[in-house]
Specification:
Length: about 280
């Protein structure tokens, strides 16, 4: 049995007993609850509840009879049903939130505005999140909300896999994406082989997303991040970025987020200068 399946069933939101039961049903086929309990060491006092839960989610069928039998749905149908369940949960959640939106805003908007009166423009310029999942989540949000353009400044874009669905969504909506990476001589091979990581990601992007422009900075980048929808009138734009601190481990770094249109426009001008005058489109 592959060790990878544990992660798959976790993603489907199954408990340990549910995952064990479904895994074995998919392997054994139709069977009774007592037989499945014997095959899996799930306590007989728990097996019926576990199977009812899997049935409620649409992952298995209950065959009437004495005794009842339990049959798994085809694997593709299990995955499709998991997605549909999550979609319905989201729609129900969104409807619930929409139901109390006006009351919530009436209650808390005045409080927020009162509490925000003493915050200076400088204090509103940035807020920060930890590098890792929090910064990747904000990057995905930036891609999803982008309407016109995204500029990426990165060493090797090694977090690409974590943000690719949102990246692809932006491209499908017609957002222009440009990526500025470092030439390999500025990348490290310890503890990770960054040139190899960069090479694989560049090949993947060029083959899968040929509309994306990629260039390579011939000098180090003092900061890295993503800039979305900058404008010369400073009316739009957002960015997430971090300054280069080679001596600080990634897990101790923080990324800055800003929606200040003037600052975002400045980041875009910096990006353009490097793109036009200090970068190349390929290297040997």
């Amino acid at each position: 049995m592959s060790g990878a399946d544990t992660g798959w069933f976790d993603t489907l939101g199954l408990t340990e007993y549910e995952a064990t039961a479904l895994r074995n049903l998919l392997t054994l086929g139709r069977t009774t609850a007592p037989n499945l309990a014997d095959a899996t060491d799930i306590p007989k006092a728990r097996i019926y509840g576990v199977l009812e839960s899997l049935s409620d989610r649409g992952f298995i069928k209950i065959i009437p009879g004495r005794p009842k039998e339990y049959q798994p749905k085809p694997p593709a149908e299990v995955l499709d049903r998991a997605v549909e369940n999550r979609r319905q949960d989201y729609e129900q959640f969104a409807g619930t939130v929409e139901g109390f939106r006006e009351e919530f805003l009436a209650e808390f908007r005045p409080r927020y505005e009162q509490a925000s009166r003493d915050i200076t423009p400088t204090e509103e310029l940035f807020h920060v999140v930890d590098v890792g999942e929090p910064s990747e989540r904000e990057t995905r949000r930036l891609y999803h909300e982008a309407e016109d353009r995204v500029c990426v400044m990165t060493k090797s874009f090694e977090y690409f896999d974590a943000v690719e669905p949102a990246f692809a969504d932006a491209l499908e909506r017609g957002v222009d994406v440009s990526i500025l990476m470092l030439v390999p001589e500025f990348l490290s091979t310890d503890p990770r082989d960054e040139p190899a990581i960069q090479r694989d990601i560049v090949e993947e992007i060029q083959s899968t997303y040929p509309a994306v422009d990629i260039r390579f900075s011939t000098d180090k980048l003092p900061f890295r991040g993503n800039v979305a929808d900058p404008s010369l009138d400073y009316e739009t734009g957002s960015a997430i970025f971090l300054v280069e601190e080679e001596e600080v481990p990634n897990h101790m770094r923080q990324a800055a987020i800003t929606e200040n249109g003037a600052f975002v426009a400045g980041l875009k001008r910096y990006f353009d200068l490097i793109w036009e005058h200090e970068s190349i489109d390929s290297f040997e």
